[in-house]
Amino acid sequence: MNMSLSVMALSVSAAAILILLGAATNRSAEPVYAQVSVMPGTDEPANTTSSGGGLGTVPAAGPRLSAADIAQTNSMKLDSDVENLVILIPDKRLVNQGFLPLDATIVEGTKVIWSNADNSTGTPQGINHGISLVQDSDNQVLLTNGTIPFGNAAQYTFEAPGTYTFSDPTNTDPAAPKGKINVIAPANAPDNLSTNSTQATAGLFVVQADEKPYFDQHFNTLGYHVEDSYMIPGPEGNDIQVYVYTQKSAKDSTIIDRTAVKSEFVDSHIGDD
Q1: How would you classify the pairing of strands 95-96 and 84-89?
Q2: What is the pLDDT of residues 1-15, one digit of tens each?
Q3: Number of domains comprising the chain
Q4: Whole domain around residue 24: which residue ranges?
Q5: Whole-model pTM?
Q6: Closest alpha carbon to 114 in 123, 106, 102, 96
């Protein structure tokens, strides 16, 4: 799923490609598998190197979360280690796109949490967003939530295999792309080497690329662990850094609270510039 994105930083429009809920509203605050190569003339896996955030040379026995692949496809594929996927509604000053990721493959029983991180008005209230979730097989509406304030979230646990479509009812642009969730059986999801039973949550964050040294140093707090990162270039140096992360907590309120804290943190750095 290739996508063209408009990237904004510091209110400067920048074109870039980001080939990158029952339900509740809460207040307290796609990994694509990396390409696995083989040794020439054999079926043995070769070592591969991360393309984004300095993971170095890693065994190719299984896939890893690759920020470059996620950014280039706007898609994530997760295994049964991940109990929660956080889909970010990003700040439009950074990325003019509704959801990160836009497309995800998850296993049965995974909870998706749509977190509103859009404070592009620069006010404490931020911008309200919403989530509408439909089961593709029969067009059954599974979730409708038209008001998710900044720092809040909506969630849904996917118990049945199949495909699902989600969108933001507050977005009136008919051309706005809708999100897709593909739910599969655990046996059909290859083990991802970036995830394990102690890192129960995964998701994406975007920050200004010139803040990368700071976030590289400070992102791994509140139970977060950066798995990889990738820069999306923009004109006049207005570049965006995409972080793919895992998080230790599997508790809903903790995930939502801590995602809101991170979102406020990112917002404060946008406002400082």
Answers
A1: unpaired
A2: 343 343 333 333 333
A3: 1
A4: 5-272
A5: 0.77
A6: 102
